[in-house]
Design a protein that fits this description.
Helices cover about 70% and strands about 5% of the residues. The chain is mainly alpha-helical. The chain has helices at about 20-35, 45-50, 55-70, 85-105, 115-130, 135-150, 155-165, 165-180, 180-200, 205-220; strands spanning about 40-45, 70-75, 80. Helix 1 (about 20-35) packs across helix 3, helix 4 packs antiparallel against helix 10 (about 205-220) and helix 5 (about 115-130) runs antiparallel to helix 6. The longest helix has 21 residues, at about 85-105.
């Protein structure tokens, strides 16, 4: 949400910028997640320093953070290689998501009205984004839809675990939607099915749809896309 502040004429409000390393970190991370920096792209410290308008020291700091998150691989005197989404990464994320989300779907029944209302709003938003062709936004809302169900269980440890997957989920989601645009409509239909199962209080139906919905990525990892 954007807010506006009105100050008296002649009065200015200084805006403090985030630290240089944080700006580089956000620049590179957003570029990787929205696919401006595709897997296999080699980024140099000099190019990044120029793009963000900082020295090379904060660039190195930011790249170390991104390497620790598994998004890039540093090569001394060469630069940072953007790591492509691997089949193993997809398989690992799918396995973890299934463990968390199937449990969360069972625990969400009977679904409180507030959860149903939030999921309805997110699904409507996702449909609008899909119609506009904004695949990055669709991927973000997709994650929010599933995260709402996980959070509804009230288990902070599981919620934090799920949130730790968010960047990998976003990156995979955008990549898959670009490669398999037919999945967008199927994803929306399956979200509708999950919502219907939660509305009706059918825990097993909700789990079955979640398993099919999330498990599709495992077919992608094995090259069995359908």
């Amino acid at each position: 949400m954007r807010t506006c502040c009105i100050y008296p004429v002649g009065m200015t409000m200084a805006v403090k910028q985030p630290p240089a390393a944080d700006r580089v970190y956000a620049h590179v991370k957003n570029g990787v997640l929205d696919r401006r920096y595709e897997g296999g792209t080699l980024l140099t410290e000099g190019e990044l320093a120029e793009a963000v308008g900082v020295s090379r020291t904060p660039v190195r700091e930011a790249l170390l953070r991104l390497e620790a998150e598994g998004l890039i691989k540093l090569y001394p005197k060469k630069g940072a290689l953007v790591l492509p989404v691997s089949a193993q990464e997809i398989a690992d994320v799918v396995e973890t998501r299934l463990l968390v989300e199937e449990h969360a779907a069972r625990k969400a029944v009977p679904a409180p009205p507030g959860l149903v209302a939030r999921l309805e709003r997110l699904l409507a938003q996702q449909k609008e984004q899909a119609a506009a062709g904004d695949l990055a936004a669709v991927a973000v809302t997709d994650r929010c839809f599933h995260a709402e169900i996980v959070r509804s269980g009230g288990n902070d440890i599981l919620s934090r675990l799920y949130d730790q997957l968010r960047d990998r989920q976003l990156r995979m989601g955008v990549a898959v939607m670009h490669s398999h645009p037919d999945r967008i409509a199927k994803n929306l239909d399956e979200h509708e099915e999950i919502l219907d199962a939660l509305r009706s209080g059918d825990a097993e139906a909700a789990v079955a749809v979640v398993h099919r919905h999330v498990g599709w990525f495992s077919h992608l990892a094995r090259g069995e896309v359908r």
